[in-house]
Design goal:
The protein is mainly alpha-helical. It folds into 2 domains: 85 residues, no CATH class; 99 residues, no CATH class. The chain has 7 helices and 3 strands. A hairpin with a 3-residue loop joins β2 and β3. The radius of gyration is 34 Å and the shape is rod-shaped. The termini are far apart. The chain binds zinc ion. The site of zinc ion has 8 residues, from α2.
């Protein structure tokens, strides 16, 4: 009965008080981690150095810092008397007395890892955009080939059919010259970004789609 009452009492706690309680819980456990780390180091960070020994244990490896926190990168600190101790890059900031140069080198290592991770993500995004662009190029090529075949069919049907450039321009048709030399490479030439290239290709595909429609109308009217 008693536990039921206390559960009820807890559920009736104002939200702000409940939040304050969980913040307090976190603060308590953080200080527990901190004191576990300090006791593993023998009281303080003094005399502990990082020689560059670190291992990537992989994501979700279950590896832990001396304090108990789960970590991926295990930094091995060493001490002339106490031997070695494995810590995480964040916790090491909580080891007062630790040599400034070791801390600096660990921070630089973390920054380099972050930069490598960002670069990996950037490359993955770029590969995705490139694959996407490939699809747009294929769509362009099939529309382009259709326009070309349509014009050739018109020329066969009407031998000597040689409308002027103005005729083509007015109807939004691709000029014969343009049809002869247009390629996706030519359309994207000079555009550096994949996004810009895609925009150009999409635009050209729309142009040719419209041209096919115009040509169909012109031919059915003639
Ligand atoms: Zn830790």
């Amino acid at each position: 009965m008693r536990s039921r009452i206390s559960a009820f009492a807890f559920s009736c706690l104002p939200a702000s008080l409940a939040m304050a309680t969980s913040t307090l819980d976190r603060a308590v456990s953080e200080s527990e981690y901190r004191s576990r780390l300090l006791s593993a180091l023998g009281g303080s960070g003094e005399g502990w150095e990082w020689s560059g020994d670190v291992s990537d244990t992989g994501p979700n490896s279950g590896a832990t810092c001396a304090c108990g926190h789960l970590i991926r990168y295990a930094y091995v600190l060493s001490h002339a008397v106490r031997g070695t101790c494995v810590v995480g890059s964040t916790c090491v900031e909580n080891a007062p007395g630790m040599s400034a140069s070791s801390l600096e080198r660990i921070r630089a290592h973390v920054a380099a890892l972050q930069a490598a991770e960002n670069e990996k993500k950037r490359l993955a995004r770029e590969a995705f955009r490139k694959a996407e662009l490939e699809g747009y190029i294929q769509a362009f090529e099939s529309v382009f080939n259709l326009a070309k075949a349509q014009r050739e069919a018109a020329e066969r049907r009407y031998p000597g059919w040689k409308p002027s450039a103005v005729y083509y321009a007015l109807r939004g048709l691709p000029f014969p010259q343009r049809l002869a030399r247009e390629t996706s490479e030519a359309i994207m030439r000079g555009v550096k970004t994949t996004a810009g290239q895609r925009k150009r290709i999409e635009r050209a595909t729309q142009d040719y789609r419209a041209a096919i429609e115009e040509m169909r109308n012109a031919l059915s009217a003639s």
